[in-house]
Amino acid sequence: MTTQAGEGPGARLPLVGGCFCGALRFEIRKPLVGAQSCHCSKCRKVFSGPGSAFAFLDEGSFGWLGEPGTLRRYASGDGWEIGFCGTCGSTLCGIHRGIVRGVTLGSIDGDPGIQLDRHLFVGSKAPWDHIGGDVPQFDEGADES
Ligand SMILES: [Zn+2]
Ligand SMILES: [Zn+2]
Q: How many domains would you assign to the chain?
């Protein structure tokens, strides 16, 4: 069972979110499009957990609230940069060619209005990671279509 973007009960726009210390706050003006969790070794490091949990967003739908003075970027080597707070370390977003195109689900306040629709790289997940639920699981990346 999947929930289409924008149909969740909490999908009131704009979505708002931010980092743990509160220095970085943002809003998202359009529904998120596609949420997934990747369990590969790189995502486990980036998120310091069982993997990533993030969603993509339409170009131009993301905006910082105030000056993002503590934002730091780390080039992850695949054309993307990871945006995180330099003060508290929260991972907030994925930046592609200077534009925020992905957001971490955990950084959003309340219901992001979308459900995970896939687990990726389950074949190389951590030995202590036991994925529950009925969300489809893929040993590696899912086919992009
Ligand atoms: Zn912070
Ligand atoms: Zn990954």
A: 1
